[in-house]
Write a structure and sequence with these properties.
The complex is a heterotrimer of chains A (about 100), B (about 350) and C (about 170). With about 100 residues, chain A is an all-alpha fold. Chain A has helices spanning about 5-25, 30-55, 55-85, and one strand at about 1-5. Chain A has a single domain, classed as Helix Hairpins. Chain A is built from three helices and one strand. Classes of the chains: A mainly alpha (about 100), B mainly alpha (about 350), C mainly alpha (about 170).
Amino acid sequence: MVPVSYYLILSGILFTCGVIGFLIKRNIITIFMSIELMLNGVNLSFVALAAHWQKLNGQVFVFFVMVVAAAEAAVGLAIIIEVYRTRETLNVDQVNLLKL
Amino acid sequence: MLSLPIFLVASLVKIVLVILILLTAVAYTVWLERKVVGHIQNRWGPTRVGPFGLLQPLADGIKFLVKEDLTPPHVYKPLFIAAPMIAVVCALSSIAVIPFGTTVTLLGYQIPLEITDVNTGLLVILGITSVGVYGVALAGWSSNSKYSLLGGLRASAQMVSYEICLGLSLVGVLIVAGSFSLREIVDAQRGHFWGFLPKWNILYGGQIIAFFIYLTAAYAETNRIPFDLPEAETELVAGYHTEYSAMKFAMFFMAEYANMITVACLATLLFLGGWHGPVFGPPLLQAILPVIWFVAKVFVFLFLYIWVRGTLPRFRYDQLMAFGWKFLFPLAIANVVVTALIVAYRSSL
Amino acid sequence: MLHLVLFLVFGAICVAGAINLLAQTHPISSALSLVVVMASLAVEYLLLGAEFVAVVQVIVYAGAVMVLFVFVIMLLNAGREERTQGSRIATILGIPGVLAGGLLVAWALLERSDTGAVGLGSLPGYPKTIGGLLFHEFLLPFEVTSILVLIAIMGAVVLASKPGTRTPPAGKES
């Protein structure tokens, strides 16, 4: 028997790592991966609280989060490829002008 | 239900047995391929080492062990060493959920002939196949050479695309069988209809189109002809395993053939009725016959694989991707829709 | 007991993977750490009984989305990150700030919560029941997400295609 708060703490740690990664990293792809880490932390929260309330709705919602994350990853990576083609760099600090 | 110590002992014995049999099967599939492709090309294949060249896999194994395992200086070492391990681990672990026969009674205990039976067995195999793509992609990238990178990119894109068609072709089978567990899918194909025709999914379940989609997607997943552009010698030197030698190359080789065997086992279970076949005779024979039927059907699949390899030319890469996305994918979706409609109609009667 | 041990082991692997993602400079190492995090999260889902969600996590997230990330990193030949002045300021201010904020939120939530304990595999998520829910109660979100995925596919195909093959919008011809 593991308290649900342990799962929530783990989920919070993953989310916090995701936010830290989003703030400190300078490579666009790594920033994207931190977003995926945040979404994974949230998924864990959903499943843990679904087990607590004994309703499967939490697990169903994880599907929607995964689908949205996959769609966002696809479009985001396509944008990254486009940015790389025009700006020749993956460093966020150097993509700071609206016009080349 | 078995008690815990009996369960652990039985599982350990099963794991050791299955790994040994799988590795031997991999070695002799290579032998079979060389003989069959040789005969298709009007030559003998290996004949010198042992009778009919049967000891050739042993000689190959010794060669791989003794050869110099060269790690080129320009590679990214951690991933270079890890990539073949990922490929081999994924190829060998998907055999864990495949059932080989009915439950046998040994020494008074009921032991199911599989390492484990999970509720979502089919999805576990799909998941392990998905993770196996990393072995190929990382091998191509870490080799730090242009042929390897291109081969790795092409191979991983091809595997990811045809994984979708593979999964969709299996959805038809799932709708007919009603469960993800492989044992239950096989049990749903028990019995006969019209007197003598067995109730296999390919005949009674109406999954003939799904069977051909599965076969084609399986050829593409395991990187075999006609879809083996990423590793063809005449195209990309050797694709993603250009820079690998000796034992690491042997691991990729083993992974490819183990994947072939897993895919053949899965096709047998899902489309050809698994281990169901005429069972007769004394109880010992009755326990072994299902396994023999299973092995015979898997052998038919492997022979089909090797026959296609000796016969067809390979697809060009853009033809390959167009075929997967523009033809197989809509066909698989159409198969799912039609199967669902028929099953819903039959169950509402 | 077994539940606690397994939870702690795989939770430690999750956190180690997450910290490794932050600590590594090369994107490919971060991507592989994220794969490790997702795989151990799948085991955590299994511990809670969500078997279908766990397998879908491995197939979709670890086996498709992350392969896409690795693919793009390989394609664009992303190199190691450099430490610029901006990233130094962000690290010095960002990490303590986020940690403080996170601890505050965690303390506030856990102080007032009345959640109990869950056993091993306490809410079995069979595919049949989840499928039933998806097609009955959650039918509208299901259909809307399918349209979302269609839009994402179209967007990704257009964005990633070669610049010369895109047709310009109709207003440009004059």
